[in-house]
Each structure stands twice: as structure tokens, then as C-alpha cells.
Design goal:
Elements (H helix, E strand, L loop, with lengths): L8 H27 L6 H22 L2 H22 L7 H20 L2 H21 L7 H24 L18 H5 L2 H26 L14 H22 L4 H29 L14 H5 L2 H16 L1
Helix pairs in contact: 1-2, 1-8, 2-3, 3-4, 3-6, 4-5, 4-6, 5-6, 6-12, 8-9, 8-10, 8-12, 9-10, 10-12
GO molecular function: phosphatidate cytidylyltransferase activity
GO cellular component, one term: plasma membrane
Protein name: Phosphatidate cytidylyltransferase
């Protein structure tokens, strides 16, 4: 049996499309390096190679049984939280508190595995929100208490709670009483809607980032948030959002249960939210005086540099489709 046989035809085509984009990008990078050798293209080459690794891990994880992808995304959440906590100083007294923060990651993804929506949606916003400061109280230190509790909880919400929404897309099952009628692209898709929604979210979020960069470099004149991210422009933002909306209109009805109208709205949501997520992480990095959140992804920076937009798009897109169909 082939590794990808259990996936729907639409998902296999989408993964093939990602592979095709990577091949074309690599050929273009090779051509640029060959015909413009006088310029330094090392960052571009590193970035392209890392995209191959990211896409490869994503595709293979998606082809595994459901628990395989949940473990993969849980590990990404762990790396993101570790990276976040390595950037922001925490009190020595809070080391045991951080243990509980890390322990929340497998628990949060276990709720996803159980499809236990009631626990999934309140575990970190309610139980961890109460547990973290309670555990800090018993360290006996009040100096920096509020700041430390806020740092840990913000990190959990961003790197674990937000990203776990992408994982929950995999286990969603539509109900007949949904607010919108599903427009299934195939019979198989009706039985397994999660992978298509997940690819739609991740691909549009990442392509939205790339499109904003390209439009900003090509036409950018007016800075949109100069104190937070000087390189971002109004033209880049508008071009990125427009590109994301068009791609959503093209991809959504062919890959997911959304028709053209809801795909357009989802594209608009992802385009705008992705930009805001990017700005949010940029504000943290500027506050800390660092360019990148890490170096684990050559050419990209850290996990948060790559998943910054996803921290906003994942929960908002999840609740968008959950409200409509589930």
C-alpha cells in the first residue's frame, strides 16, 4: 500500500502541487545563481532548501495515521514554546512552573486526539491560566509575579493553544445541522475533510507571507507599521491579501467543503490575520532587540519566524469553518 493512498484525491493533488511549486522555485533559484553570480544568493539558497525540509516533513506527517501528524504539530508547538521562553527572561524560581507549561503540550494534543472539544477549548485559557499563577504563588516570590505569569500564559496561548487549532481541523466531522451546506469536491472528501482544510490553511498562510513580501519589494512605498516592522508596506499588505483571496477562491472549492463564496471570505480572513500575526511576533522581537526568534530553520530564522502568521490564522480559520459546518 502506498504511503499516500488513504488520502483523498484532492489532498494528493494538493501535495503534488506543493511539490511542483518547490521544483519550479528551485529551478528559478538555480537560474538566478547561475546568471547573476556577482550577487550573494546564499540566503535565498538556504531558504529554498529549508522549504524542501518543511514541506517534506509536513507531507510525510500528513500521510501518517492521525496520531502521527498530532505528534508532529505537538513537537512544533514544543519547539516554538522553548524558543519563546529562551528569548524572554524568566525568574529562576519559575523553573518548576515551566515544567507544567511544557506538560500542557501533550495534554492539549491528547484532547485533540480524543476529539474532546469541550476540554480542548478551555484547557489552556482556563485551567492553565489558573494553574500557572497558583504554582507561582507557592514559590514564595512576589517580585515580578505579574510579568512572569503574563509571559508564560501568553507563550502558552500563542505557541500551544493557537497552533493546536490547526491540529483539531484533522478530527472535525461535519454535522447535518451546520449553518452552511458542505460543497464536497468528492465522495472521499466527505469522509475525511480534515487534511484538505489543514492544507488550505497552511498553504494560504505561507503563500500570503510570500506574496506580501514580493508585492512589498516590487511596489512598496508607504510603510504600514514603521516602528514594529519597517519593511512592511501598505502595498505589500494589500497585494498579499488580494493574492490570498484569489488563491482561496481557486483552491477552496477544489480542496475543501467550502464553496466559492466561503472560500473567498476564508482567504480574506487568512490574509489579514496572517499579517497581524506576523506583526505581533515582530513586535516581540523588536522589544527584545533581536532580528530572528531562532536559527533552527536556515534562511528563515526560528520556528516563530515561520509560524508567526499561523498563530493568528489557525484559531480564526478553525472557528470560521467550525461555525459554518460543525
Amino acid at each position: 500500500m502506498h504511503l499516500f493512498d488513504h488520502l483523498t484525491p484532492e489532498v494528493r493533488v494538493a501535495l503534488g502541487g506543493i511539490l511542483g511549486v518547490l521544483v519550479v522555485s528551485s529551478v528559478l533559484v538555480f537560474a538566478v545563481c547561475k546568471f547573476r553570480p556577482q550577487r550573494d544568493h546564499s540566503e535565498l539558497v538556504k531558504r529554498t532548501r529549508t522549504w524542501w525540509i518543511i514541506a517534506g516533513l509536513f507531507g510525510i506527517s500528513l500521510a501518517l495515521p492521525e496520531w502521527g501528524f498530532l505528534c508532529f504539530l505537538g513537537f512544533v508547538s514544543f519547539l516554538a514554546l522553548k524558543e519563546y521562553l529562551s528569548l524572554i527572561p524568566t525568574r529562576r524560581a519559575d523553573r518548576r512552573v515551566l515544567f507544567w507549561a511544557y506538560l500542557s503540550i501533550p495534554l492539549q494534543f491528547y484532547w485533540v486526539h480524543l476529539s474532546w472539544y469541550g476540554m480542548f477549548i478551555i484547557f489552556i485559557p482556563v485551567y492553565m491560566f489558573l494553574l500557572i499563577p497558583t504554582r507561582m504563588v507557592f514559590t514564595g516570590r512576589t517580585e515580578g509575579f505579574l510579568c512572569s505569569a503574563g509571559v508564560v500564559h501568553w507563550g502558552l496561548m500563542t505557541t500551544v493553544f493557537s497552533l493546536s487549532h490547526a491540529a483539531y481541523l484533522l478530527v472535525l466531522k461535519p454535522v447535518e445541522t451546520g449553518r452552511a451546506a458542505p460543497a464536497w469536491p468528492s465522495v472521499e472528501a466527505a469522509l475525511q475533510p480534515g487534511p484538505g482544510l489543514l492544507i488550505f490553511l497552511v498553504v494560504l498562510t505561507q503563500l500570503g507571507d510570500v506574496a506580501q513580501f514580493v508585492w512589498g519589494k516590487s511596489l512598496g512605498r508607504h510603510k504600514i507599521a514603521p516602528n514594529v516592522s519597517p519593511g512592511k508596506t501598505v502595498e505589500g499588505f494589500l497585494g498579499g491579501v488580494a493574492t490570498t483571496v484569489v488563491l482561496a477562491w481557486l483552491i477552496g472549492p477544489r480542496l475543501t467543503l467550502m464553496d466559492a463564496k466561503w472560500s473567498l471570505l476564508a482567504g480574506l480572513l487568512i490574509g489579514v490575520a496572517g499579517f497581524l500575526g506576523d506583526l505581533s511576533i515582530s513586535a516581540i522581537k523588536r522589544d527584545l532587540g533581536v532580528k530572528d526568534s531562532g536559527s533552527i530553520l536556515p534562511g528563515h530564522g526560528g520556528i516563530l519566524d515561520r509560524a508567526d502568521s499561523l498563530t493568528y490564522t489557525a484559531p480564526l480559520f478553525f472557528h470560521f469553518v467550525y461555525h459554518l459546518y460543525f
